[in-house]
Amino acid sequence: MKGRILPYDIDLIYLWVDGNDPKWIEKKHQITGSFSDNSEVNNKGRYISNDELRYSLRSVEKYVPWVRKIFIVTDEQYPEWLKRDHPKIQVVDHKEILPEEARPCFNSSVIEYFIYKIPGLAERFLFANDDMFFNKPLSPDYFFGEQGLPYIRLKKKLLGRWHYCLKRIVRKRLGQYITMVLEGAASVEKKFGVFYSGIPHHNVDAYVRDDYGDAVEQVFALQVRQSLQSHLRKYGDLHRSAFAYYVLAVGKAIPKYVGKHESMRMNIYRRKFMKRLRRYDPDLFCLNDSQRVSDEDRLGVKPFLEELFPDPSPFEKAI
Predict the structure, then answer these.
(1) In a domain, 248, yes or no
(2) Which residues share a beta bridge with 72?
(3) What predicted TM-score, i.e. pTM, was given to this entire model?
(4) Per the structure, how many domains does the chain have?
(5) Is the sign of the CA dihedral 272, 273, 274, 276 positive or negative?
């Protein structure tokens, strides 16, 4: 493992949902009127489990075993295979961190506002979705630099801020996710006079808990309140990338622009997972599900992950 051990505890947070759970499906149906409408906002891929968390935890044990504690944020659920009494594992229910007015919540952006409230969370933490994986031995200073400042990993666009301006001309309306990201960047520019045209790398991120809390409770407090009752993601919601742009703007983080050799997002519908992974050999990778993914596409996910991470982790119950 390259790098050095830092004098800080570092935790890891996951969001996890089992979209196949009948009880959860009924709860969602009462709020939204449908399980999935194949839209960007409410497609099956947002909630379906391909057992990614099992393999992401195997990647943790294999490549970043120095993580102190792993928190799994869920809505009255937990994976049946998970060894919940393992000392490094803690399942956190939405009720423990989300305000009552935001529940039930099927909007990951809103859930993410409150991860800093997890009881016992270390001051420095990593955040991941369950479809994100460590692919090489990485040391703590891969995520936190001088004086414990987090690295904010961004992807550059060739034309900077004009990249999406041109896309708007062609498409008229951008997708919801990138719209939220750009609105967050514009909000930071308005508040602090700095605009970041790089977009999130869509992979494991590093944060400092108190700075994250300041972003939620002070800097973006109004926007957070306005999004609280968005039970599903919608245009106009604040995305947590704004928190990353904020800490960069005030000198509490270090920007790091990355490409596919460091951080790679693989869209499931393109398949050929192993071939693409070996081509770039990234430090981190994500298997991105979406409205463009079919059930047939998803059939290849588990065999790929089983080949990559065949050894059970200590976080799994014995078979």
Answers:
(1) yes
(2) 14, 91
(3) 0.91
(4) 1
(5) positive
